[in-house]
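Why do we care about 3D structure at all? Because function follows from shape, and shape follows, mostly, from sequence. That is the central idea of this module. The next example makes it concrete: a single protein chain, its amino acid sequence, and then its structure expressed as tokens.
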Amino acid sequence: VQLQASGGGLVQAGGSLRLSCAASGRTFSNYIMGWFRQAPGKEREFVGGIRWSDGFTRYVDSVKGRFTISRDNAKNTVYLHMNSLKAEDTAVYYCATRQSFLVTTAQTHYRYWGQGTLVTVSS
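And the structure:
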């Protein structure tokens, strides 16, 4: 399994950005995809996740109402749509996947990881 994250960059507070995670190497119908982030000097944290089979999503409270995860089955790609960005959203964002029905929040549960993409929100 290979994951390729992209779409990071510099954006002003209140702006929007869309991250992509292109997956290859498997049929992902029974997989979940999680998005994590690691801010400078902080632990990596779960942002949100999606179940590939039915599109079920879950999010950490700090991004609910601002971030949305979607998938494109034909492209084997998952997106993280980020709106109303805040300075505290600045981090390296990672996508990760594992075969599972439950969309878990623990990073130790995810087997495959992308390389990370940097999002910088200027205030």
